[in-house]
UniProtKB/TrEMBL annotation:
Keywords: Amino-acid transport, ATP-binding, Cell cycle, Cell division, Cell membrane, Membrane, Nucleotide-binding, Translocase, Transport. The keyword Transmembrane does not apply. Residues 4-230 form the ABC transporter domain. Part of the ABC transporter FtsEX involved in cellular division. Important for assembly or stability of the septal ring. The keyword Cell membrane applies. Belongs to the ABC transporter superfamily. GO terms for cellular component: plasma membrane. This is Cell division ATP-binding protein FtsE. GO terms for biological process: amino acid transport; cell division. One of its GO terms (molecular function) is ATP binding. Pfam families: ABC_tran. It comes from the Bacteria.
Length: 230
């Protein structure tokens, strides 16, 4: 069953240039997909179309069978819960603790404070931030800030997780550990899509690559990652 379907999708921001042109692919439930390509290729645009944060000029983007470009406003909150997003500008609130940052998405979904706190602690533990929940984001390392962003993205238990360059600005070892956090969520069933231009991460972890280049998306198909057995 396809969780995401692009059908002849075109996206341009004016100026007559197609940022994405004639893009068609599908992603099945449970996949772990890397979106690769040079800076400016259109990776962020692709992720924003999936998250419903942008709409195509032509073509169809389906998520869980729903046309996200044509989703009526009242279904937007549904989409926001179904998809955990970690976009480029990680909007962690600097005046709140890590714990309060993870609590935030739960306050809008109507959980009691105690149920929300239990979930927030579970999410913080899952990403390996136990003991740091009282710290403010700026007191955390770059890698731990990404972990916090992941905890906030998954705390509502979305079936789909998308992250845009989540390892930018991290050293190699921290970057690998962050990808392994995503891989762990994928292993418990969360469909996961990571955009990166880091070829070494793709070599080590990717089981499927969508290559974005000059507006076109090439499906690299299934592959065996170097660290596939771990
Ligand atoms: P990547 O994530 O691969 O670096 P992007 O999707 O951010 O690529 O950008 C692809 C192209 O689309 C770039 O040329 C960029 O300048 C352009 N672009 C992206 N977003 C916008 C926008 N909101 N307005 C105008 N141009 C944009
Ligand atoms: P609990 O049931 O107490 O929340 P779990 O160990 O089952 O504990 O889950 C830990 C956390 O993992 C969840 O609170 C949630 O933040 C996160 N999570 C998000 N999505 C999923 C998922 N699809 N499967 C498992 N865990 C998820």
């Amino acid at each position: 069953d396809l969780m995401i379907e692009f059908q002849q999708v075109y996206k341009s921001y004016g100026r007559g240039i197609d940022t994405l042109a004639d893009v068609t692919f599908g992603i099945a439930q449970g996949e772990f997909v890397f979106v690769s390509g040079p800076s400016g290729a259109g990776k962020s645009t692709l992720l924003k179309l999936i998250a419903g944060l942008d709409v195509p000029n032509r073509g169809t983007v389906l998520v869980n069978g729903k046309n996200v470009g044509k989703l009526p406003g009242r279904f937007r909150p549904y989409l926001r819960r179904a998809i955990g997003t970690i976009l480029q500008d990680v909007h962690l609130l600097s005046d709140r603790s890590a714990f309060e940052n993870v609590m935030l998405p739960l306050t809008v979904t109507g959980h009691s404070r105690s149920a929300a706190a239990k979930r927030a602690h579970a999410a913080i533990e899952r990403v390996g931030l136990s003991g740091k929940d009282g710290l403010r984001p700026q007191e955390l390392s770059g890698g731990d800030q990404q972990r916090l962003a992941i905890a906030r993205a998954i705390v509502n238990r979305p079936g789909l997780l998308i992250a845009d360059e989540p390892t930018a600005n991290l050293d190699r070892e921290s970057a690998r550990r962050i990808v392994e956090v995503f891989r762990d969520f994928n292993r418990v069933g969360v469909t996961t899509i990571l955009a990166t231009h880091d070829e070494s991460l793709i070599t080590d972890y990717a089981t499927r690559v969508l290559l974005v280049k000059e507006g076109r998306v090439t499906d690299g198909g299934k592959r065996t990652p170097r660290l596939g057995g771990e």
